[in-house]
């Protein structure tokens, strides 16, 4: 994990067979005394220190380090990438279902996403272009203008970043999309408040087409709770394809969510947390929040999408289109 932290990426769209998937996954979920669903844990708990969150929940403290290390990957200029033509066809729903089945078979354990099953809605963020390392993950969210992506606020400092949906092996199968505007909460701008580590960005059209018309988009899920398993996808900086993992989730204080999924290292921040839904699924969180997504590869966090995120989305939608 780099000094600048971890970032993660999204998952494929398509209708998912939850009738059996939920049964398998929830077998790995137990209920605490307060009745909250808790994620299956593939690894030992992180050490718990004395500090608590605003909501009163104990917060894991990093071990062997004076300060937490976020999950955003460092931006470098090494490793040039090659761009391919835009306009490729999105992966079929059957391919998405097959990828989900692989994840459900091993809840809490990440696995690489085969190139044929990479979700078009999810992509990597680069600073300025493909002539460097990808540093975060983002995903397309449904909007009236068809031009919004969602990620962690700590992933976007300006409009110099570009979004590459479906990125793999140095190629941009759906094109390279420039950002026109970044929208973050005022409390994030003022103090990098971890409870507001969410950002939307308006993406400029390419060749007369908006982003969503090319790759599709996830529905935005507000107030979805913790009763359903989540599939999380992200792009580790050290790899050229994303990883994905499915598991139950739990509340972390009053404003954040937590999931146990292995191997989400630098570069995966901003990756979407997706639950089943009509069409291509619903994004209910992004890797970020507490310690900018967590200070270990196997435990990730997200701001719980509530009224503040809904308001931020509405600002972004009004700025786009």
From TrEMBL:
Residues 39-81 are annotated as: Disordered. Signal peptide: none annotated. The keyword Transmembrane helix applies. Keywords: Membrane, Transmembrane, Transmembrane helix. This is Serine protease. PROSITE patterns: PROKAR_LIPOPROTEIN, TRYPSIN_HIS. It comes from the Bacteria. The chain crosses the membrane at residues 20-39. InterPro entries: Peptidase_S1_PA (IPR009003), Peptidase_S1_PA_chymotrypsin (IPR043504), TRYPSIN_HIS (IPR018114).
């Amino acid at each position: 994990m780099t000094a600048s932290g971890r970032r993660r990426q999204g998952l494929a769209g398509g209708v998912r067979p939850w009738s059996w998937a939920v049964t398998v996954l929830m077998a790995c979920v137990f209920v605490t005394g307060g009745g909250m669903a808790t994620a299956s844990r593939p690894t030992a708990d992180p050490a718990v220190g004395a500090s608590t969150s605003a909501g009163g929940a104990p917060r894991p403290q990093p071990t062997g380090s004076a300060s937490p290390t976020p999950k955003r990957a460092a931006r470098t200029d090494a490793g040039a990438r090659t761009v391919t033509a835009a306009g490729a066809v999105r992966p079929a729903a059957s391919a998405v279902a097959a990828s989900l089945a692989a994840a459900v078979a091993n809840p809490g354990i990440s696995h690489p996403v085969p190139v044929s099953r990479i979700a078009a809605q999810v992509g990597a963020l680069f600073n300025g272009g493909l002539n460097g390392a990808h540093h975060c993950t983002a995903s397309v969210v449904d909007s009236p203008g068809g031009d919004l992506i969602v990620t962690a606020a700590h992933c976007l400092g300006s409009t110099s970043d570009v979004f590459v949906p479906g990125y793999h092996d140095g190629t941009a199968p759906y094109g390279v999309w420039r950002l026109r505007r970044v929208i973050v909460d005022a409390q994030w701008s003022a103090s990098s408040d971890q409870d507001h580590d969410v950002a939307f960005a308006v993406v400029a059209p390419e060749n007369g087409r908006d982003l969503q018309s090319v790759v599709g988009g996830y529905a935005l899920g507000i107030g979805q709770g913790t009763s359903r398993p989540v599939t999380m996808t992200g792009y580790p900086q050290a790899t050229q394809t994303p990883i994905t993992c499915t598991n139950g989730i739990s509340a972390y204080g009053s404003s954040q969510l937590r999931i146990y999924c292995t191997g989400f290292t630098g570069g995966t921040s901003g990756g979407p947390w997706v639950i089943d839904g009509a069409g291509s699924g619903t994004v209910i969180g992004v890797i970020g929040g507490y310690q900018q997504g967590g200070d270990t590869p196997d435990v990730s966090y997200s701001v719980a999408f509530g009224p503040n995120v809904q308001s931020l989305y509405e600002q972004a939608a009004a700025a786009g289109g």
